[in-house]
Amino acid sequence: MGSVRVRLHDDEVLVSGAHVNETYENDPDAGARFKVRDPDGTVWHRTGDAARLDDDGRLWILGRVEHRFERSGVRLYPTALEVAARSQAGVSQAAVLEHQGRLTLVVGGDSVDEAALGRLHPAIDTVRRLRKIPTDRRHNAKIDYAALRQSLAH
Asked: Three-state SS for 38?
């Protein structure tokens, strides 16, 4: 097995190596979206994951690029806020999304302290509680943000 190379572009993780296909069979649109070719011919795959490298060269996953927010010129990713919320007493699930123009923390669980959750980060505008936050059927751990948006609309 050859080596794997990793680089960040605009916070997104790109990988290259022998495991990275140059194209998608029968799907040129996906190839255009997810493949980047360097002038030397190296093909990079855009993972859709956002990350940062620390001073020791460790890669810290921040969440999905498509889920990032900007507040006062600062990029925010939901993963850190969701982990912080799940560490609070009574919270079993947490999701952060923009809803009606407001950064909304949605939590599932029993007897949660919504006021304390609202103080987790100054960017959180609203805290909402749902009995159960919808998750992706394939994983039952990843938040289904489209379904969550529908739940909040009702």
From this structure: coil
Burial class (CB in 10 A: 0-12, 13-18, 19+), 98: middle
Give the confidence band of 1 by pLDDT, cuts at 50, 70, 90: low
Q: What CATH architecture is 4-64?
A: Roll (2.30)
Backbone angles phi, psi at 88, to 5 degrees: -85, 150
Where are the chain's structural domains? 4-64, 68-153
Q: Is the pLDDT of residue 47 over 90?
A: yes
Which residue type is seen at 129?
R
Whether the CB-CB separation of 38 and 55 falls below 8 Å is answered with no
pTM of the full structure = 0.76
Q: What is the pLDDT of residues 55-111, one digit of tens each?
A: 999 999 998 898 888 888 889 888 889 999 999 999 999 999 999 989 999 999 888
**The CATH number fitting domain 68-153, selected from 3.30.470.20, 3.40.50.80, 3.30.300.30, 2.60.40.10:** 3.30.300.30
